[in-house]
Amino acid sequence: xxxxxxxxLFILPFISRADFSIDWMKMPDLAAxxxxxxxxxxxxxxxxxxxxxxxxxxxxxxxxxxxxxATSTTSVALNHEYPSxxxxxxxxxxxxxxxxxxxSSSGRISNSLIILKYDQSGNLIYKKNIDGSYSPYNNSRxxxxxxxxxxxxxxxxxxxxxxxxxxxxxxxxxxxxPAGNTLRVNTDSFPSTSNFHFISNMFLNNDKVGVxxxxxxxxxNSTTWVMDTSGITLWDSINVGVQxxxxxxxxxxxxxxxxxxxxxxxxxVLLYKYDSLGNLMWTRQYDLGGYDISSKLKVxxxxxxxxxxxSTTTGGSNYVDWQTVKVxxxxxxxxxxxxxxxxxxxxxxxxxxxxxxxNTFVTGIGGPFxxxxxxxxxxxxxxxxxxxxxxxxxxxxDTINEYxxxxxxxxxxxxxxxVMGDVNTLIIHYxxxxxxxxxxxxxxxxxxxxxxxxxxxxxxxxxxxxxxxxEYRIDSSLIWLTYSTNQTQLQIDxxxxxxxYEYRVEAICNSGPTGYSSIPHFTTTGVxxxxxxxxxxxMILLISFTSEHx
Length: 550
What we know:
There is one protein chain. By secondary structure, the chain is mainly beta. Strands 8, 9, 10, 11, 14, 15, 16 and 17 form an eight-stranded antiparallel β-sheet that branches. The radius of gyration is 26 Å and the shape is globular. The protein has one helix and 44 strands.
């Protein structure tokens, strides 16, 4: 029996169309924490990393039930650990990369890279530290960024700026074998007069691995380095741009580099295409209608590219909107969408995903604000675009924390979607309803095996249903607790003794939810101790009040 509890308290989804629904929402039972990354395996188990001064890795099943949690700490005084990314090796073992750091007023000062490999049950296989100095200091700010990639054989590539102990300062690509042994450290120092290096992102395809970033903070530039997986540099380049933001290497070895250029008072997105030898094939500059800053680059199933960016409105306010742009391999824009559903605050995208049907998903922070009259408040927003750039649906999650931002998207093995927010590592499992098979409201909903603290809810099979949601609450309560399951029965617990509960069930088909059944009641056995104590206290207060007045 599979189940998960949904936390709908203070979380209200805004739904623009009925093409999706929320299956479940979960977060770790930790104090204030920050979600940093998420990955989903072939069984829809979801792994998340959380910053809680330490590296916290959690695994949940497809229904959101927590399977295990593993925490990595450091014994070095005044040091902490930060989780950057998660990978799954060929055996589906999770591998976490991160870094050890000292917190300062200017940011995190990293002094060691960390690799953590666990088995599928959460047992630590190895922990590896690679010491060095990975936080270049420039312009009163520490920049620390670690990214990476894993090849199909489980070999890991780490990319960061600074220096590994014993190696020169520059951009670094570190290759580690599946057992955690460092095979090679490659460094490209570039002709940097400021000795400043920063890597934004890495991309690995076949036998080529590339990184992009910047090597001159004061003037800024778009710096790219591509080598083969044996460690031989194929080419490197420094070009115009305010930092290389992302890159993509196609199967022919061509490399696309995303940057942007500042032309005060405006700025434009830049896209470069290099051939396999590093020769610049073309440059495209895109005026998206304001001060435009590029963010991420993804490839589509048709071989074209998606650009994620954000920009101000020309002649309008200084608030920014997010931009999603599809371009072909010659750099020509196919479609563009400015997401502007919030005129009183910024809307900023954080992650973008394309699927094998040509759809694009973007998550970030923005509007509309669905839960109140505070028009300037923002919330976590996720948008689905069809292959032609039409918005199929929009989901804005209203929580108490108006700074909740979508930071990661992962596609399930089915048509579902996982999105993670940063605040308290909120995970949302969306059901993307792409079918038209009809479903009916469940019948035969009943309860058996009632005890002091549990009950078994059962119902009849619904044709075409692949999931069911079961809700229950204390009689007349405003809060429903919701479970997701693929069975036709569910044991709910723990419950209060001697208490009246309401319950109901809905089916989920590929066309969407059927709606809930009628609401019957049941009463748990035993005595309601809470109400008994409350009654006794009221009697004591009444006796005390009476004796004082006579």
